[in-house]
Amino acid sequence: MRRPAKGAAPRRAAVLPAAAAAAFLIAVAPAASFAEGGEAAGPAFTLGGTVSQRSSLSASLSDGADFPEASLGYSGLTVLETTLRAASGPARAEASLEATVASGAAAGAGPEPAVSASVRTLYASLRGGVFKASLGRQVLNFGKGALYSPVDLFAAAEYSPLAISRRGTDALRLTAALGPLALAEAVAAPKADPAQGVYALRAAGYLAGLADASLVGAWNGAEKAWMAGGDAKVDLPFASVYAEALFAFPSGGGPEPRAAVGFDASLGDLVLAAEYFYDSSPAAGTATGAHNLYASLAYGLSDYAKLAASASVDLEAGTGSGGLLASLEVEQGAFLGLSATLARTGASTTAAAGLSLELRF
């Protein structure tokens, strides 16, 4: 995360969006009402979110010219995430905001903390009959994969060893239900230059009573490529198996395939998942290469304690990261966590151990 420059003006620029968002939420929160059975007589609002504090100590080992170089570091991260949802008849709206204060290694070089704020989602939708339209920053998740999803053209997953998240995309989405188990949709996600946007058509449904499947066709203006692909997921008694494939046809070039296969299984209190991802033309500067693997597991030790682990690896480059998290609900909505992570990037290896506290409201 980039540290803001010294001085009052950069700090105000980072704080103002968070202050405006907080003022908006405080203004509407007193009007919140919750329906208990049946629809509310008027607009209904729900407000929720999390406040978390994560502190960690890390040790890094870098490949030097003559001998390895070691370093120690501390990171502190305070995050506020809040989501406001409103509903009135066929209309819906959502605003999801995030504010972060980072210190130590998480803030980059220098003693000052880094303050940032972002709008994760901000959209409104309207339903009429079989049709639904939504406009604004929204999470558009086309694929089936938890981390690797070739047909997920809009909402690329953000991976850390302890969590996977997706940020919203500024888009217009039009959906038409073709039956109880099928739909067709069109999505336009333009950029400042509309020619650089992504425009897609998708059809999805339950195929022959066996598979949840979809077909996607799109134009990616940034890559100047037509794209076509599909995905399918089959539910078995104790597991689900899925596959995705996408072919990009760039101007003046041949097809560039991307594919993923994966599964998730539930065995009592143990949940397992794994994915393999192939990309014939991996983009420079990304964490994935031609051959990639992701795996995760979660185990419920009790009603209040949970153990989770995950890892993501570029099999060709030998880089990646993984983590282990043990969490305990010490009070209702309050979670204490202990974590350990290991990351290999380029010529350095970093191990970290941390303590976290999360409050949900």
Q: How would you describe this structure in keywords?
A:
361 residues, globular, disordered N terminus
Summed up, what is this model?
With 361 residues, this protein is mostly beta strands. 6% of the residues lie in helices and 63% in strands.
Report the principal-axis shape: globular
Largest sheet: 18 strands, antiparallel, barrel
Share in β-strands: over 45%
What's the order of the H and E elements? HEEEEEEEEEEEEEEEEEEEE
Strand element count: 20
Rounded to the nearest angstrom, the distance between the terminal CA atoms is 27 Å
Radius of gyration: 22 Å
What would the average pLDDT be, to the nearest integer?
86
Q: Low-confidence stretches at least 5 residues in length (pLDDT < 50)?
A: 1-40
Helix tally equals 1
Task: Please identify the structural class as seen in this structure.
Answer: mainly beta
In helices, the fraction of residues equals under 10%
Structural summary, described in words:
This protein is mainly beta and 361 residues long. The chain has a domain at 1-33 and 44-119. The chain contains 1 helix and 20 strands. The chain has one helix spanning 8-28; strands spanning 44-62, 69-88, 91-104, 114-128, 131-138, 157-160, 163-166, 169-179, 182-189, 198-207, 211-220, 225-235, 239-250, 256-267, 270-279, 291-300, 305-314, 319-331, 334-345, 348-360. The strands form 2 sheets. The chain has an 18-stranded antiparallel β-barrel. Mean pLDDT is 86; it is low at 1-40.
Write the topology of this structure:
Elements: H1 8-28, E1 44-62, E2 69-88, E3 91-104, E4 114-128, E5 131-138, E6 157-160, E7 163-166, E8 169-179, E9 182-189, E10 198-207, E11 211-220, E12 225-235, E13 239-250, E14 256-267, E15 270-279, E16 291-300, E17 305-314, E18 319-331, E19 334-345, E20 348-360
